[in-house]
Amino acid sequence: MILPPFLQAGDKVGVVSTSNFTEQKYIDELVKILQAWHLEPVLGKTIGPRKGSFAGSDKLRKTDLQEMLDNDEIKAVLETMGGYGIIRVIDQVNFNKFKYKPKWLVGYSDTTFLHSHVQGMLSTASIHGTMAADLEDGYQPESWESLRKALFGEKLNYKIKAHPLNRPGQAEAMLVGGTISVLCNAKGTMSEVNTNGKILFLEEIGEKHFRLDSYLTSLKHAGKFDYVRGLLIGELEDMQEDDPPFGKTPEEIILDAVQDYDFPVCFGFPAGHGKVNQALIFGAPVQMVVSPKGTTVTFKH
């Protein structure tokens, strides 16, 4: 797996909205954060325009991402918001130049399509991390500091308290994953995630329990758990009980989906749609040790 060059002070970084529209005040706050890191933010053409819920038309969003990927001066591309939209344009994006001059792609949620696309098609790492829209809930120092460390190549080591439903064990492998519903929607496309021999990270927001079960069952039937070495579960935010009740918590639904496998499982990693969103490098080797005392996640790049 190729790791793009880590950033250095003075580097230019692109800021784009390939999915949903992001309010300008959060873009302004992001610019200040990046400048404090001694980076030079370059705002894309999707910053400002709006078409329905999208940050401009499909053509504009595709063109904006393409220009950022092709611009040699841009060393990383930060998505400002998730939501929905990347799947409408990603097959039109030409990654030929990116393939030979990779750069960090940053975001989460709908950006899961980009992550799994560049890992599966181009063997290139990317960063699952916080975005400008998250600033609506205020500045979260843990989230932004972990993103800075990931971008600048500093060590990422996490310790997570024990969860009663954890399944102990140890795994060392490449990390992949993202939002469960997006991974499910990507099945059968060029952006489909390859989980074979990997540690799989999963998180979700706002889904009913039966819907979560359907996504996981679909992933299971597609063989996505067959050769996984470890399962790292992030935030399961604002999950909604069914009427009548489905009868299982989100954590129990996940354990039920993977009961036929013996890999370690960690719940409660602080990444995803929750208030804190610690950065993860998808495509990088990571060691996960799950014990009754807690879990450690150590990046080996």
From TrEMBL:
GO terms for molecular function: carboxypeptidase activity; serine-type peptidase activity. The active site is at residues 109, 203, 273. Coiled coil: none annotated. InterPro entries: Carboxypeptidase_A_C_sf (IPR027461), Class_I_gatase-like (IPR029062), LdcA_N (IPR027478), Peptidase_S66_N (IPR040449), Peptidase_S66C (IPR040921), S66_fam (IPR003507). The keyword Glycoprotein does not apply. Residues 13-129 form the LD-carboxypeptidase N-terminal domain. Residues 173-288 form the LD-carboxypeptidase C-terminal domain. Keywords: Carboxypeptidase, Hydrolase, Protease, Serine protease. GO terms for biological process: proteolysis. Belongs to the peptidase S66 family. PANTHER family: MURAMOYLTETRAPEPTIDE CARBOXYPEPTIDASE, MUREIN TETRAPEPTIDE CARBOXYPEPTIDASE. This is Peptidase S66. It comes from Adhaeribacter aerolatus.
